[in-house]
Specification:
Number of helices: 8
Largest sheet: 5 strands, parallel
Shape: elongated
Strand content: 15-25%
Number of strands: 9
Strand order of the largest sheet: 7-6-5-8-9
Length: 239
């Protein structure tokens, strides 16, 4: 592998940005490699193949217009940040870990954020502002805000929307969310950004208990991750 390509790939991985190493394996240019980032625009069938690979996170060979390529996919491990050490979080954390997410729970309320209630979970009994300053959100992070407290939830929600997290969900009634929308718009967010919040949080499965709500949240987060619109890999000719 070309050293420049390797350095570029390592830089993308260190920054938690997805990239694909595309290798020509069966044409006159066999062995030729190039690095494709999610921010790159690739039109046509190859763009569609890259889009599918970014979504699945799986490497493999593809044939495009009679050419054969190997797509070596490097996608960051999905991360789920939960704001609120509540009963929903107690059920959500172990399920999300089983599903392959790196899970982090943040809640400054030390009466809730205790190791006894969240054994084996990355738990931060701090304000979200402090935690996210050390480990910022990114496009491969989903955020679920479940405290019902604007003083705790609003800042990470704002940061998640500005960052473009693949999933942003918030607990609360429609009336509660309407007030939340007003606050976020007052903070400078656009209608389009605020519309990205999944509220009420979770798929509509009629969930009643904290565990059922956790199932609905996890399912919604997985769907958002796998169906996210990368927006840059499309057949322009067909658009």
């Amino acid at each position: 592998m070309d050293p420049k390509l390797l350095r570029a790939l390592n830089a993308e991985r260190a920054a938690r940005r997805a990239a694909i190493l595309v290798t020509d394996i069966a044409t006159e240019g066999a062995g030729r490699e190039r690095l494709v980032r999610e921010s790159d625009e690739i039109a046509g069938p190859l763009g569609e193949a890259l889009s599918a690979a970014f979504r699945s996170g799986k490497s493999g060979a593809v044939e495009v217009d009679g050419q054969n390529f190997f797509l070596n996919v490097h996608v960051p491990a999905p991360r789920l940040v939960v704001i609120g050490a509540v009963h929903i979080s107690q059920a959500l954390a172990p399920m999300a870990k089983i599903a392959g997410f790196d899970v982090e729970i943040i809640d400054p309320r030390t009466a809730f954020a205790t190791p006894e209630r969240f054994a084996g979970v990355d738990l931060k009994a701090e304000w979200p502002q402090e935690v996210l300053a050390r480990r910022p959100l990114d496009a491969y992070t989903g955020l679920a805000a479940v405290t019902h407290d604007p003083k705790i939830d609003d800042y990470p929600l704002e940061q998640a929307l500005r960052t473009g997290c693949f999933y942003v969900g918030a607990l609360g009634s429609r009336k509660t969310h309407a007030k939340r929308v007003e606050r976020l718009k007052a903070a400078g967010l656009t209608d389009e950004q605020v519309a990205a919040i999944r509220a009420p949080i979770g798929l509509d499965i009629g969930a009643a208990s904290p565990a059922e709500i956790a199932v609905a949240v996890l399912a919604e987060a997985i769907a958002a991750l796998r169906r996210r619109n990368l927006g840059r890999f499309r057949d322009k000719a067909a658009a």
